[in-house]
User: What shape does this take?
Amino acid sequence: MSNTTDLAPVTVIGLGPMGQAMATALMKAGVPVTVWNRTPSRAAELVASGATLVPTPADAIAASELTILSLTDYRAMYDILDGAVSALAGTTIVNLSSDTPDVTRDAAAWAAQHDARFLAGGVMVPAPMVGTDAAYVYFSGPEAVLRAHETVLRLLGTPRYVGEDPGLAQLWYQAQLAVFLTAPVRAAAGRSDGERSRGAGRRLPARRARHADRHPRDAPRRSRPGQATGKRGTSRRPEHRADDGRHSRPHREHQRSQRRRHRATSCDQVALRPSDRRRPRHRQLDRPPRGDQTPTL
Assistant: This one.
């Protein structure tokens, strides 16, 4: 980003990787920066580049109207600023630490009790990308406060205002962070599913072969020369052969006609002689009637 002159001084409290990146981006733009950290040695490089290190949080807040917090969570904010509440009146606190939306709302109410303006935010890029054109930051809280300090805050990343509710910035931050963190896991899961499906496809012919060995009757029939095959290799009807007419269409029609004629003849015979089906054959022999037989004495 281009250098800017005549910018109001800014205080940065918390000099972890993100805090150092933000202080560096501000100083590159020509902003006077005051810093404070629990471990003063972390400010050595910034001081060598032109930052001012102060001994207490109260001195840091008093040095600038705008104070940017880059801490582990909001609990750290209370631990640091509880001893400097007398210096909060009339200042603007921009807390870019991460926490839940409810905790952020409580922090905004706490700042209002001490006559301080409060903005919540979430930086959506890693520390090395702070201050680049790809960086952007979610902000929530009073829009007028953001607009008053937008020129300086834009040096960190493109501001994206999400609403008056102080908890909205953390809500967007956490949701976006969840997408970033779970994307590699979901991509790896998708690759593993694809590998499993491809592996199953490679193993499928072997499974079919083992099934055919164990159950020969279920094995698909292989096509013979002159036969059309389906999707799985099973044979359909034979094609017409020139050497004999057994599989030609006229021959099949003749066979069906013969079967129909045979069924009709059989039905006619049964209808004409129904007694042949009911009376056993030995009853038809020439025997004398039972009444003509004389008893043997």
